[in-house]
Every structure is written in C-alpha cells, then in structure tokens.
Write a structure and sequence with these properties.
This protein is of the alpha+beta class and 68 residues long. The chain is 15% helix and 21% strand. A hairpin with a 5-residue loop joins strand 2 and strand 3. It starts with a strand and ends in a 10-residue tail after the last strand.
Length: 68
C-alpha cells in the first residue's frame, strides 16, 4: 500500500497523524502530512479520516497515471 498526499489540499490539521496506528505519518517542516512508507501497514485510516480528502491509499502500481 502506498499513501499519496495531495500537498495542495492538505491543511496540516494532523487528523491523519492522530489516527495512524503505525506512526508512519507525521507533519513535515512545512506543516503538511508526510508518510514514511517503511512504517505504513496499509490500514487506510488516514484516508478514511482526512477531512480534506488529501490522503489516498493505493496499491503499489495503481498510482494515477500508471498503466494508462
């Protein structure tokens, strides 16, 4: 699973960080969410709870533009 964060939509509220059970998400220096893929367990809670729809969880190889 790969976590994609839309940097334009992310407001840095930290909701995704709070719900990340593996602590893969944090707020970067710019105050926006960043993901450490080595820690991500692919639970999808970050996508589910993001109030701004800035987080998307996709299976590897399903990223936008691939295979099209």
């Amino acid at each position: 699973m790969k976590v994609l964060i839309n940097r334009q939509w992310c407001k840095g509220c930290g909701v995704c960080v709070a719900f990340c059970r593996s602590r893969a998400l944090s707020l970067g220096e710019d105050g926006k969410a960043v993901c450490d893929p080595a820690l991500c367990v692919g639970c999808g809670l970050c996508e589910l709870y993001c109030p701004d729809l800035a987080v998307e969880c996709v299976r590897e190889g399903d990223e936008a533009g691939e295979g099209a």
